[in-house]
Amino acid sequence: MGLTPMMQQYLDAKEGCKDCILFFRLGDFYEMFFEDAEIASKELELVLTGRDCGLENRAPMCGIPYHAANSYISRLINKGYKVAICEQLEDPSQAKGIVKRGIIKVITPGTYTDASFLEENKNNYIMSLYLEKEKNMCALCFADVSTGEFNCTDMEFNLATLLDEISKYSPKEILTQDNLDEKIQKDIKERFSSSFTSLSEEFFILNSKELLSKQFSSFKEDDYSETLVKCSNGLLKYIVETQKTSLSHINCFNYYNVVDYMAIDINSRRNLELTETLRDKSKKGSLLWVMDRTNTAMGGRQLRKWIEQPLINNSSIKLRIDSVEELLNNLSVHEDLKEALKEIYDIERLVGKISSKNVNAKELISLKGSIKKIPIIKKILSNFETTLLHNMGVKLDELQDIYEILDKAIIDTPSISLKEGNLIKEGYNEEVDELKLAKAHGKDWIASLENSEREITGIKSLKVGYNKVFGYYIEVTKSNLSSIPEGRYIRKQTLANAERYITPSLKEMEDKILGAEEKLINLEYDIFIDVRDKIEKQVDRMQETAKIISEIDCLSSLATIALENNYCKPEISSKEDIYIEEGRHPVVEKMISSGSFISNDTVINTSDEQLLIITGPNMAGKSTYMRQVALIVLMAQIGSFVPAKKAVISVCDKIFTRIGASDDLAAGKSTFMVEMWEVSNILKNATNKSLILLDEVGRGTSTYDGLSIAWSVIEYICKNKKLKCKTLFATHYHELTKLESIIKGVKNYSVSVKEIGSDIVFLRKIVRGGADQSYGIEVAKLAGLPDKVIERAKEVLNSIENEKSNDIDVKEISNNNIQVGKEDMSHSQKEYISVDKDMTSKKIKNNNFTLKENKNVPLQMGFTDIGKDNLIKEISSLDVLSMTPMDGFNKLYDIIKRAKELD
């Protein structure tokens, strides 16, 4: 027994796409066989059947209707599968023997372009990674097939930097060499839920010069590293081979350097919740959620890129900020601009569809409607004087020639399907007009035939109908058959209650109508293709216009949030100071009731206020305050106004955060291990222009180990001359507050807490000085721990404190300096740091750790002291002679009660 011809054809097609699920077109269905059928039936919840294939056993089979394929493909793609579409390449009715079939497209997670299943405000990136170990170089390329974006960069290989760069784009699919180091692959797979495709070394190398030069007219191989050329060639070749169509919209080879933008490591992006929340990965609750008031899908995607890649060039930042200010100062004009932007469709993705030959007539009408609004936008921009807005208005191409073609050619309400006619406007093509007239005349004749036959036969229920099987017919109910004149009709079909007839003249007119209709459909299709091809030649112009509109939309969004949220214009300083007056967290203030957010000031620089040690209890707002500072800096470098009364921002090249505990149990890493890995990454990669946020460093291990590590980290940041960067350091180790008098640049701050009886109230205010206690038991009480647990905790605490007070025995730290060797540092940090020899330190006894008190350390006055002062003032101001005896007794009782609470 041998395979049937059809099954052999299937297996031949499958040979070319072994890693895909093959959708094999059979009539009105896509069928899947063998292993593909078993996978698809499970993933898509389809009935698994069988089909005779010429072998002893039937081939497992399942299928879907071809017109419903998109939703099924989407489900498979979202699960990480690839789908190959094998279509019929000829009309089955005209085929001799088996119908020719071939793969017309391979759909992968990174090349999926169906707009109905893509997030409109988020790019769908595919990425390639090429690593050359001998040169210690790697290159990354990112493309979005739906928009035509193609970005490339190369760098000296550093795993942390590589992961950070990937996190900017969050690609759906990653292409790598099949010989890529397994550890590197594992590290990438642990952090990203991307689909992976391994390709041979030859795939990246072969025909690189020819393919890239053909695709990108401005590409010159000598301008780029060999590593970058191989990487970009592999990505482009993969896209070409899967899409199997023109890619004229992928026409700009955009090379960038990673140091052109603020570096934000992968953990910091997560901790700061820039585009999605930590808890449920949703947009709501992220910085993007607050800042995105864009009116177009293009603007939404562009704003996401701005947030992912803040600027570090002072003049570029100021250009954006000045533009936002001018929009704010011209509110009525800005409102007109927003109204115009609302009418703009997703030109970028429409251009992608035109380029891939996948656009329909309705989408071209959407493009026409968008182009119609461009002259209005251009006119509005002429009202502005700032450099950025003015230049955008000058450069904005109105695309009027494209508008005229579409306006003349395509009817305003066309069919969605290109094979149903109803596409071309009257007056655009003479032959189309004639065929439409013939079709309309024929249908008029059919309509009049029904009336005339009713009069001739006297049968009022007689009707003329049509179906695809028999064409036009005359239908007479059986009760009226005797009224038909002899020989007038030719019987065609018998029904239960009626007979259907035809006449020679009816069939003649049918041929004319159907002939005209078929010719019209084919002609309209051909003309539509011609119109589409004419527009495709202007892809680069449409893309440039789309880019300008997206940036205008972003600036408009920044102006809108500044107005609605009472943001201020930040001053971009060339000095190394950050000054924020009444700063607020942009997200938290939107999530709580209006006006209830407590603002805070911040002064931080690289000299006397370089590292701020922030103490205070959990839940008091330390982490919110730290994130708030980072987000204000980041927003300013995006070009946005910021949530503050006043802000002077020095440009930061990098932001690092180490906030929150995050066990990575699946990878076998504890909280402490993850914490130390993150801190190590920060110390090795930060520069003197960076901003660092460190929260509870060392808490994942024992008290003494943790305190020692935190102490040493602070020293390293402050004493390493090539680091000395702006740092916020939150801690529960109150012993660290003594560093203010020991290390230059360290300053103590704390979060205010008010004690009311045995309860505490968080004031959320950052004040100078260290906190005098942690209020851990009070916080536990707020969290709802049982009263017995709370009371016992207080007893244990009192016992420990009493024991501690009897064990103070201070001595100097030994002469052994804490050192950081060269092997633990980056190239820019190869120096030693040490603890000062005269630094006071510790005595361990009965599990107590004590630091000798330095009398020069300014202490924050506790709330107990404030309470005593207030009570004394109140007593001294009493006018006893004016009180009644009862008032006196009541006041005395109140004073005694309050005095006991303060004791």
UniProtKB/TrEMBL annotation:
Keywords: ATP-binding, DNA damage, DNA repair, DNA-binding, Nucleotide-binding. It comes from Clostridium scatologenes. One of its GO terms (cellular component) is cytosol. This is DNA mismatch repair protein MutS. It comes from the Bacteria. GO terms for biological process: mismatch repair. The keyword Ligase does not apply. CDD domains: ABC_MutS1. It holds the Pfam family MutS_IV. Residues 690-706 form the DNA mismatch repair proteins mutS family domain. One of its GO terms (molecular function) is mismatched DNA binding.
